[in-house]
Amino acid sequence: MQLFNQPPPQLGNQYDDDRVLRSLLARRFGGRVPAAVEEALRAMGELAGGELHQLQLADRLNEPRLVQWDAWGNRVDAIEVSPLWRRAERLAAEFGLVATGYEPEYGPRAARRP
Question: What is the pTM of this model?
């Protein structure tokens, strides 16, 4: 009797491989995505499909954990996350994932500040 065995998916660059996202961005930017934006998206796509994907597979059972009390009974309400989660947080800051959408250089395509 043979058992069914399927190889795991192999991901490529998640930006380059996403035809719909690239098409949407090209339309949104009037035909051509700015080089700086495309460079950052390509770098993030490579991380997402490569190193971060492999790290996530190895860390998939390590969920964030709420710690409500310390060893002395004091309320701390801290969320403990794995090193992978901390790495993702640093990458989000380095790539400016939140701030980029508000950059004035994108004119009417930039999000409006509250």
Answer: 0.73
